[in-house]
């Protein structure tokens, strides 16, 4: 059935503007700057290394050494990705002695990860 839908044309057969629907869209459409910021946020999620880091952090608060070990990467590579995640307010850190522990910034981040997983697992 899905293959049949993929073959359907992507354009309407006639031009008919639905003014009532367009008014709703115009009233709810965010400002261009907000849409840009949202697109930039989703770009951060577009890197599999950062997704792997976020997934680890959704399970536990860990330091760079732990992340490097579990992801089989160098601490330098992990630190670079954590810097990007922190700049985009997706992770936070706290110091404990000589260690810096990282965790997800808030529940929204884990929700985004969980919903993304739900989406890709649909009809799998």
SSE order and pairing:
Blueprint: H1 2-6, H2 19-28, H3 32-44, H4 48-59, E1 62-63, H5 64-71, H6 75-87, E2 91-96, E3 99-104, H7 107-121
Antiparallel strand pairs: 1-3, 2-3
Give the topology string: H per helix, E per strand.
HHHHEHHEEH
Name the overall outline: elongated
User: What percent of residues adopt helix (DSSP H or I)?
Assistant: 55-70%
CATH superfamily of the domain at 60-124: Winged helix-like DNA-binding domain superfamily/Winged helix DNA-binding domain
Number of strands: 3
How are the strands of the biggest sheet laid out side by side? 1-3-2
Structural class: mainly alpha
How many helical elements? 7
How far is the N terminus from the C terminus?
A: 15 Å
CATH top level assignment of the domain at 60-124: Mainly Alpha
Main β-sheet, in a few words? 3 strands, antiparallel
